[in-house]
Amino acid sequence: MPKSPLPKAVALRIELKEVAPLVWRRVLVPDNWTLATLHHYLQWVIGWTDSHAHEFEIGVALVAPDWWIREAWSEEEANRYRDERRVSVAAVVAE
């Protein structure tokens, strides 16, 4: 049986918006992680307790948890977001 290839490691620079002074982290993560997994990892790396809502801004794309999308103010707003469980780190790096 052929072995599955190992995921590639990706170096990411994560910056927090609207925070002064700038808070950022450089992390090395597998490219097969979803952004949901990355979110949980960042909670640990930054020392947070997952007590606030979050979203990822990747260029003009918005990615958020599924509950955030379900509770959007309108269908138009919900359609602006992609579900973080369905977006991989590899897909983001490729964009």
From TrEMBL:
Q: Which Pfam families match?
A: PRiA4_ORF3 (PF07929)
Q: Which residues form the Plasmid pRiA4b Orf3-like domain?
A: 9-94
- Protein name (Swiss-Prot/TrEMBL): Plasmid pRiA4b ORF-3-like protein
Specify the species.
mine drainage metagenome
Which lineage do the record's taxonomy fields give for this organism? unclassified sequences, metagenomes, ecological metagenomes
